[in-house]
Amino acid sequence: MEIFVQQLINGLTLGSIYGLIAIGYTMVFGIIGMVNFAHGDVFMLSAFIALIFFLILTTWLGISSVVLALFIVLIIAMVLTSLWGWAIERVAYRPLRGSFRLAPLISAIGVSIFLSNFVQVAQGARNKPTPPMIRDVIVLFQGESGYNVAISYKQIIIMVVTAVLLTIFWYVVQKTSLGRAQRACEQDRKMAALLGINVDRTISLTFVIGASLAAVAGTMYLLYYGVVSFADGFVPGVKAFTAAVLGGIGSLPGAVLGGLIIGLIETFWSAYFSIEYKDVAAFSILAIVLIFMPSGILGRPEVEKV
Amino acid sequence: MTAAASIQQTALNAGRQPLLSVRGVKTYYGNIIALKGVDMDVHEGEIVTLIGANGAGKSTLMMTIFGNPRAREGTITYQGRDITKMPTHEIAHLSIAQSPEGRRIFPRMTVFENLQMGASINGMAHFDQDLERVCTLFPRLKERLQQRGGTLSGGEQQMLAIARALMSRPKLLLLDEPSLGLAPLIVKQIFDIIKELNEKDGMTVFLVEQNAYHALKLAHRGYVMVTGNITMSGTGKELLNDPQVRAAYLEGGH
């Protein structure tokens, strides 16, 4: 029981991070029907941006409050990563729009390789640790075997930040004219243009939103693990993509749900079975779900009135 | 409108610059030519109809006016301005609205949101007023405001497509087959609404139709398109009485 609750907390934390990345995959897929393989590396890049600015703020500028520093870092990481997301779309994907379907996909793989190598060259190949940030934990209860069920401040911060940002994001997509334009382009780009929507700009905006949420994930990842390396884009990227597919690619709530499920599967499998096979478990569940629900858990089957 | 009045109208237009003017427009899909040099004018305050068989290129002309697909040759001018190479979304900002072929309503948005999309060009100014107006024109939509577009019946979707186009208060309204697949009673309703918009609000309408009888009866002027060429033009009445038009588009029931 204690282990169960503890793993539930851990799993939800990890799942929040996956969910944030998964939104980037699902939104981009929704609007241009392309899997943005570079998204995982954008996430990794954002973790590095967060690390660099965290060090600048705490050591050079001497900001002593970690929470304040984190807040500033989060904002900076979101802004800079958005710029990267915007630039990547502009340089690598937009010129290929209207070309054959595989072209942007290949281009995305190229961007992915470029980003991880760029970071490797610029930051070195070794793991980069952060100075210890927040280490306090709250002990929720103690089991009879002496096993403490604890939730750390870090985990609370991660879950709260994720929840708040997802709420803001949800509001933007559902209630503002920007979000409406975004959804319109997703459903019918040609018609959206006929109604005066600048489709190219909306697609750019989608990349910007996806990248900024990846930056939140990157900052949270850094906070959680306290270490990041140039290769860290790949595995979380693939997991988040899996989450997006599991939840139903194209569906925003699906991406979050998928992220949480993948996070939970991973932590529970590690706790109860074997840590080596946690990825196998996550991907097997994906395979099984897709056999029975080919469009994912919340994905919509392709039936529409014409 | 009587024949005399419509001839008068045509004469009146002769001296004026047309609102929309299409000159020698050729459009291709890849290497296949769809429009083979189309000339056409729409004057302010008119209802102009374009009739023709399936695959004649009517809808292509509609979309070419909006630059998607783009005309490879020829020019399209609107209010004296060359819009041939203008991006589609900028053309939409010139107060031209289109209810396109296949209706193309956003299926996973509510009726209300679809209408909001129509109004986004003028930044939602006078949205409430316009909403009120389209709800009066199409009371059916008012009952369905919170329903998703994809769940509407075909006729309701058609109404929504027209209502959405009206939300931007266009000067020129392009309607692509508003009667397609609708019950005769609803077709009549929709044609009455088009007439009302034209007479009361002075809206200029360019109407593409296969339902030639209704369209020609309604329109001031008409064009006939056959495989990418305009083969005939004249007032609605002239075309309605033309033996060739009758034989090709009208005999065998309206």
TrEMBL record, chain A:
Query: Which GO BP terms, alphabetically?
Result: D-alanine transmembrane transport; L-alanine transport; L-isoleucine import across plasma membrane
Query: Where in the cell is the protein located?
Result: Cell membrane
Give a GO molecular function annotation for the protein: L-valine transmembrane transporter activity
Q: Which Pfam families match?
A: BPD_transp_2
Q: Where are the transmembrane segments?
A: 12-35, 42-61, 67-88, 100-119, 156-173, 203-224, 244-268, 280-299
- Note the topology in the membrane: Multi-pass membrane protein
Look up the signal peptide feature and give its range: none
**Keyword annotations of the record:** Amino-acid transport, Cell inner membrane, Cell membrane, Membrane, Transmembrane, Transmembrane helix, Transport
GO CC terms for this protein?
Answer: plasma membrane
- CDD domains, A to Z: TM_PBP1_LivH_like
Instruction: Tell whether DNA-binding is among the UniProt keywords.
Output: no
- Family recorded in the similarity comment: Belongs to the binding-protein-dependent transport system permease family. LivHM subfamily.
Q: What is this protein called?
A: Branched-chain amino acid transport system permease protein
What organism does this protein naturally occur in?
Microvirga guangxiensis
TrEMBL record, chain B:
Q: Name one Pfam family in it.
A: ABC_tran
Q: Which GO terms describe its molecular function?
A: ATP binding; ATP hydrolysis activity; branched-chain amino acid transmembrane transporter activity
Instruction: Specify whether Transport is a keyword of the entry.
Output: yes
Keywords per UniProt: Amino-acid transport, ATP-binding, Nucleotide-binding, Transport
Q: Which PROSITE patterns match?
A: ABC_TRANSPORTER_1 (PS00211), ABC_TRANSPORTER_2 (PS50893)
Say which domain of life the source belongs to: Bacteria
UniProt domain ABC transporter: residue ranges = 20-252
Query: Cross-referenced SUPFAM superfamilies, in alphabetical order?
Result: P-loop containing nucleoside triphosphate hydrolases
Entry keyword annotation includes Transcription regulation: no
An example Gene Ontology biological process: L-amino acid transport
Supply the PANTHER family for this chain.
Answer: HIGH-AFFINITY BRANCHED-CHAIN AMINO ACID TRANSPORT ATP-BINDING PROTEIN LIVF
Q: Which family does it belong to?
A: Belongs to the ABC transporter superfamily.
Q: What is this protein called?
A: Amino acid/amide ABC transporter ATP-binding protein 2, HAAT family (TC 3.A.1.4.-)
The organism of origin for this protein:
Microvirga guangxiensis
